[in-house]
Amino acid sequence: MSEINMIEMPKKLGKIDKPSIEEYKTGRKLYCIPLLYSAKDAPKDYVKLYNQYWTQVKEHVEKLERAGKANKIYHESIYSTGQDGLEKIKQENVKSYRIVKSKVDEGAALISLEDNRLLSEYIDWAMCLSIIRSTKVAEKIQKFYLEAEKRRDEYIVKRIDETLKKGEVGILVMRDENRIRIQSKLQSDIHVFLVHPPALNDISQWIKERIREKFKK
């Protein structure tokens, strides 16, 4: 994985939404954490920003929880619950694992967010797209990919709606481009709060600079 694309940045950086006091009392809340990764051979300056990001995420979540402690935890690509789910997260991303584990230790429940079959189909079509060179073939695979993406999104939205009960608070750890896609499909009583620490902008700027440097060569 190259230095430029070792993480996927959100297409749109948001700010924390502020529902009214009445909505606080009756609605459900979802604290959304952008899921970022770091490659093992990532540059030291990126790793520094990456570590700062996850430290700030923890601090921001703690501030948000003054309005309600998390009851449910959802993590992208996780289709298991309990210890199995935690181990899967740990294998994928140690930083997000630490956030999730701390909330589980405090009493929150890790909920399986994905359907394994739908997730596997989505990943397989994405992999096919990444290696296809023919435009005609790519167009056909793109159609299958988007259909798989739609079914996956629908499942995730339904899963959150069915498991996040009235008055409860959930934490969603998901790549921001995926969160943006499903957010408009969530039920109207689910109030979304975006966790957006300063280091997220710093990482975005770091990537832009790397891209500019690459095209100068």
Oligomer: single chain
Mean pLDDT across all residues, rounded?
89
Individual helix count? 8
Shape field: globular
Taking all Cα atoms into account, the compactness measure Rg is 18 Å
Distance separating the two termini = 19 Å
**What's the domain count?**
2
Provide the spatial order of strands within the biggest beta sheet: 3-2-4-1-5
H/E element string?
A: HEHEHHEHHEHEH
Helix percentage range? 55-70%
Strand content: 5-15%
- Poorly predicted residue ranges: 1-17
What kind of sheet is the major sheet?
5 strands, parallel
**What structural class do helix, strand and pairing data support?**
alpha/beta
Q: Give the beta-strand count.
A: 5
Mind sketching the topology for me?
Layout: H1 21-26, E1 28-34, H2 44-64, E2 72-75, H3 82-92, H4 94-105, E3 109-111, H5 116-131, H6 135-163, E4 169-174, H7 176-183, E5 190-194, H8 198-216
Parallel strand pairs: 1-4, 1-5, 2-3, 2-4
Helix pairs in contact: 2-8, 3-4, 5-6, 6-7
Summary tags:
single chain, 217 residues, alpha/beta, 2 domains
Would you give an account of this structure?
- Helix 2 (about 45-65) runs antiparallel to helix 8 (about 200-215), helix 3 packs antiparallel against helix 4 and helix 6 packs across helix 7.
- The protein has a five-stranded parallel beta sheet, sandwiched between helices.
- It has two domains: about 15-115 and about 170-210, no CATH class; about 115-165.
- The chain is globular and about 50 Å long.
- Mean pLDDT is about 90; it is low at about 1-15.
- It has eight helices and five strands; from the N terminus they run H-E-H-E-H-H-E-H-H-E-H-E-H.
- It has about 220 residues and is an alpha/beta fold.
- The longest helix has 29 residues, at about 135-165.
- It has helices at about 20-25, 45-65, 80-90, 95-105, 115-130, 135-165, 175-185, 200-215; strands spanning about 30-35, 70-75, 110, 170-175, 190-195.
